[in-house]
Amino acid sequence: MTNPAPIRLLVADELPYSHGVENVSVALVMEFLELVEGVTWVTKRPSRARELKKRLPNAKNLNFASLFPAEPANQTNDKPSPSLNWKRMVKRLPFIGREARKAYRKKIDARLKQIIQENRCTHCFVNYALSQTAPKVEIPVVGLIHDLNFLHYPDNFAPNAPCELRLAIANWLQNADAVTVLSEAGKDELLSLADGPPNAHVEIIPNAIKTMKKEHSRRREKGPPIFLYPATALAHKNHLGLLQAARELALKDNDFQIIMTGSKIEEIGKKEPLANATVEKARCYYAEHEQILSKVVSFRAARDSNELSQLYREAHRVILPTQYEGFGLPLLEALSHGIRVTCSRIPQFLEQVTRYELAAWVDFFDAENAKSITNAMERSLLQKEEPLRFEEVEEKLARWQWKDSALAYLNLFA
Predict the structure, then answer these.
(1) For the residues 292-321, what does the mean pLDDT come to?
(2) pLDDT per position as a tens digit, 216-265
(3) CA-to-CA distance for 13 and 115, rounded, in angstroms?
(4) HSE-up of 323 (CA within 13 Å, CB side)?
(5) What average pLDDT does this structure show over 112-137?
(6) Distance from the Cα of residue 327 to its chain's centroid
(7) DSSP assignment string, 151-172
(8) Which of the listed ranges 2-16, 65-79, 80-94, 347-361 does the model predict with the highest average pLDDT?
C-alpha cells in the first residue's frame, strides 16, 4: 500500500445480511485496505468476525471489533444465533416497540463511540443502511441502501415493515452525511421519499464484479440448452412469469431446460402453501401445470459459490425475468462466467448494459408479458452462439471495478 489516504474507516455491521450483501462488503473492504490507513470492521458478535476473516487477507491495517460479547457457551443448534436467518429477523423488526428500539439504538451508538475512540476512526460506513437508523457518532457517516423493493413488493415483508422502513429512510436522509445508492433509478426512488431537500448528500456508486478465471468459462456441450435463473423466491423475482413462459415454450415442443436456483427456491415445487402471496401464485401455477413443467423446470439449491459456478458453466443462457432490482448483480455474474443474458427491460439492467457496453450480449423482454419472455427464449434457442471470449469479457467488465467503487467512497469521505 502506497500513500494511503489519512482515513481510519469504521465499517459498522449492526445487522446480519444476505450472502450477496456480504460479498459487497468484502469486496469494498479489500479495496479500502489498499487505500486508507486502517479499517475497523464492527460485527454483532466475535463469531461473525471469525467468518469474515476467512474471506480477507491478513492485513496489518485491518481490525475487528464486536458490539456484543461472544454467544453463550450453552447455545446449541436447537437455539440458533440471532445472526442466522437474517431476512426473517429484519422483516420482523417493526414488531419491536419503538421505545425499545430507541433504547437499543442508544446502546449501539454508545458502543460504536467507544470503538471509534479506541481505534481513532475518522469516518463511518454502513453497508446495510435499510432497517436501521444512522449511527449518532461524532464522525461523518455514509450509508449504502441496496434497494427499496418494499415500495413495490410489500409481500416480501412483514405487514408494518414498509411504514417503518420509510421512517428509517427519512432518518438517513435527515441525519447522515451521505447516502449512496446503486443506480439512477434507485436515486430517483430514494429522493421521492424525502419531504424536502435532504440534509444528506445522495450519490450513485455502482457495485462491480470480478471476472471469473479463464479455466472456469468452459461450457457444457451435451444435452438440451439450459436457461439458468439464480434468484431467491421473492415477489419481485417473477418466477410466475418464467413458469408461464416455460409452459408456452414446452407446448411448442421446444427442447430446453430451466434451472431455478436460490434461497427457498425448492418451495415453489412443493405442496405446502407459502406465506408470500406472490410466490404462492407461482407455486400454485406450477402445481396446476406440473405434468408439463416438471419435464422442463427443476429447482436446485446451490450450497456454495462452487456449486453456483457449476450451474453457470452448464447454462446456455442466464434468464432474469425480475421486475425490480436495486442493482441486478446476476447480470454481471452471468457475463463474468462468459454467458449471454436474456433479461427484463428494467432501468437497472439498462444502466449496466450502457455502463459496460454490453448490448451485443444481452437480449431484453417485457417482464410483465409472459409471451414476451417466451419469444425471447425462443429467439435464443434458434441462435447458434459461441461462448463469450474471456479476454472480451475481462475488457468490458474492467470499465468499472471494485477499486472504482472504493475510490468513489473515498471522494465522499474527503
Answers:
(1) 91
(2) 445 556 789 999 999 999 999 999 999 999 999 999 999 999 999 998 99
(3) 13
(4) 20
(5) 93
(6) 8
(7) GT-GGGS-TTHHHHHHHHHHHH
(8) 347-361
Please, which residues have CB within 8 angstroms of residue 136's CB and are 6 or more apart in sequence?
105, 109, 175
CB of 300 closer than 8 Å to CB of 260: yes
Cell of 187: 436515486
Nearest to 377 by CA among 297, 274, 310: 297
Would you state the cell numbers that stand for residue 81, as one nine-digit string? 444465533
pTM over 0.85: yes
What pLDDT band is residue 214 in, cutting at 50, 70 and 90? low
For the record, the C-alpha cell of 292 comes out as 408439463
Strand-pairing partners, residue 180, are 144, 203
Cα of 388 vs its chain's centroid, Å: 25
Place of cell 428509517: 168
- Cα–Cα dist 71/85, whole Å: 16
**CB-based burial label for 300 (10 Å; 0-12, 13-18, 19+):** middle
Rg of the Cα atoms in the chain: 22
Please state, as a whole number, how many other Cβ atoms lie within 10 Å of the Cβ of residue 369.
13
Number of H helices, E strands in the chain: 15, 13
Q: Is 178 helix (H, G, I), strand (E, B) or coil?
A: strand
**pLDDT at residue 192 above 50?**
yes
